[in-house]
Write a structure and sequence with these properties.
- The chain is of the alpha+beta class.
- The protein has 5 helices and 8 strands; from the N terminus they run H-E-E-H-H-E-E-H-H-E-E-E-E.
- Strand 7 and strand 8 form a beta hairpin.
- The chain is globular.
């Protein structure tokens, strides 16, 4: 009987891992928050202005995105940011979001999406690229991007 339990446990573990692996790599399940970000990131990459504006707050923060020389803040009207492809690229900060690992977590009414970006120029060998969403009556809306 003990051998049967051990065999059953071993088979269960193998099946469980088999269902959650792809090409020998462990694949994490996609949460509702991950899905929201994946859709938004895709819209950034293809520059789907309509989707981006509909799913953003009226003003968005863009760290280190100096679009106007006389603008002293990192906050811009979302329609202004999404109006030109080069502004969307600055907001993305990296060439591609979809092929990079990221993590998401909810903190109160905020959804935080974090990328760990490696850089030889960063003091600690890298930095965090963070995209923030705020929960509204219409669901999560994009608030902006910051670097830490």
């Amino acid at each position: 009987m003990l051998d049967f339990i051990k065999l059953f446990t071993l088979i269960s573990i193998i099946l469980f891992l088999g269902c959650n692996t792809k090409n020998g790599k462990l694949v994490r399940s996609v949460s509702k928050e991950d899905s929201l970000w994946i859709n938004f990131a895709h819209a950034l990459e293809i520059k789907d202005t309509k989707f981006l504006i509909e799913n953003s707050l009226d003003s968005v923060q863009c760290a280190e995105c100096i679009f106007l020389s006389n603008h002293e803040t990192e906050v811009y009207a979302s329609s202004f940011v999404y109006d030109q492809p080069d502004r969307i690229e600055k907001l993305m900060h990296i060439d591609s979001l979809s092929d990079q690992d990221f993590s998401t977590f909810v903190e109160g009414d905020r959804l935080v999406v974090n990328y760990k970006v490696k850089s030889i120029y960063a003091e600690e060998g890298g930095y965090n690229l963070i995209f923030l969403f705020i929960k509204t009556s219409k669901g999560y809306r994009f608030k902006g991007m910051i670097l830490t």
